Amino acid sequence: MKRIGILAVIGLALVLGVSLAPNASAGATVIRTASFWGDGVLWGSVVTPAALPSSAPASSFDKFFVTTNTNNPMGQAPVAEAAPGNPSYNGGRWATHTVTWTAAAFAAHGTVPVLTSSADVMFHAGLGHLTVVQGSPAGGPPAYFECPLIRASA
Predict the structure, then answer these.
(1) Which helix (H) or strand (E) holds 106?
(2) How confident is the model at residue 32 (pLDDT cuts 50, 70, 90)?
(3) Which of 18, 25, 79, 82 is the most buried (most CB within 10 A)?
């Protein structure tokens, strides 16, 4: 079971395209590059080998938005619903949501904007530019996992 958790962590890191470095804490890996958007700030993380059960209270998770398509030359890092300093931040417990830009978004924007906060995601979803579905895209992170956000190294 521990081996599956470690493989999930490695898979998450590969999907996000980040560099990893071991941490002194057993079983944890520090993502030292800025790899996640949260409240308009880029964050790194400590990836733990823990996939969490979906039976935990929904209020104990923040949404983790993974975009499946973009035409922005800057790409799109995953977006956290809340980050450290936000009173709603749950310490890095995530429920993954798949985000897909619609044809209407490409027609309205040409090059779609980079989403940097949950407010951006909700704004564009409200305009019909995004579909947001709970669950992870194929090859994405676990549906429920733990990954606290930390300041990214420069």
Answers:
(1) helix 103-109
(2) low
(3) 79
